[in-house]
Amino acid sequence: MPELVPVEIPPSTVMLKGLDWDSNIYLVRSGREALIVDTGTGKRVRDYIGLLAGEGYLDGLRKVVVFNTHEHFDHIGGNLAFKSLLEGLGIKVSFAAHRIVAEVIERGLSRIILDYAYGERFKPHEVHAKLEDGDELKVGKLRLKVVHTPGHTAGSTCLYLDGETKLMFTGDTVFNGTVGRTDLPTGSGEELRKSLERLAGFEVDFGLPGHGWVIKDWKGNLKRVMP
Ligand SMILES: [Zn+2]
């Protein structure tokens, strides 16, 4: 297991490769606000926050929005731990997700979250911003577009940042070299295929997946992995 090292994606994004069973975790900063995309299972949150704080990535931050790409425990399990540790540093934290994901988080639906598969129990909590396809998520001066991409789960959602560097946060919808599985509750191979076709229409410099490494050849990768 490699040590935790932040991978910078200029101008404003830092990737933390997930440790153990954790999803990758991303921090996107704009002024005194930041976005965190996914939070892992929650077991290593102290390591992530310690690293981000130690390297200065949290300096001057006032407000963080935590966005979850989908309903699975390895992406949402660290939500409350991130909130409490960040609030301990004086940073305000709120949660955002697609409406379908938000409902699962608020109701703590284990059948979909799969927390039991990790020997854990997910603690339900409020999601402040319930988003729909086409909505914009505001983080400082940045505007990220909400792209609902069902297939891996019904709520699976990508976030598109159309900036100086064009980024797509893909969750478990598409990875470098493969796609998300569709055999889990609320998954659908047919929906996934439609979502991937839609994603191929975006101009993307770096695809930032929920597991594995950065996708550099966006359209080529999609063509290769299309089921
Ligand atoms: Zn997943």
Order of helices and strands: EEEEHEHHEHHEEEEEHEH
Estimate nothing, just give the exact number of structural domains.
1
Determine the mean pLDDT: 97
What would the principal axes of the Cα set say about the shape? globular
- Distinct ligands: zinc ion
Helix/strand/pairing category: alpha/beta
- What proportion of the residues form beta strands (DSSP E)? 25-35%
Range of helix content: 10-25%
Report what the structure shows.
This protein is 25% helix and 27% strand. The protein is an alpha/beta fold and 227 residues long. It has one domain (6-225): Metallo-beta-lactamase, Chain A. It has a seven-stranded mixed β-sheet with strand order 1-2-3-4-5-6-7. Strands 8-9-10-11-12 form a five-stranded mixed β-sheet, with no helix packed on it. A hairpin with a 3-residue loop joins strand 10 (157-162) and strand 11. The longest helix has 11 residues, at 189-199. 46% of the residues are buried. The structure holds zinc ion.
SSE blueprint and pairings:
Blueprint: E1 6-9, E2 13-16, E3 25-30, E4 33-37, H1 45-54, E5 63-68, H2 73-76, H3 79-88, E6 92-98, H4 99-107, H5 110-113, E7 129-131, E8 136-139, E9 142-148, E10 157-162, E11 166-171, H6 189-199, E12 206-209, H7 218-225
Parallel strand pairs: 4-5, 5-6, 6-7, 11-12
Antiparallel strand pairs: 1-2, 2-3, 3-4, 8-9, 9-10, 10-11
The structure holds zinc ion.
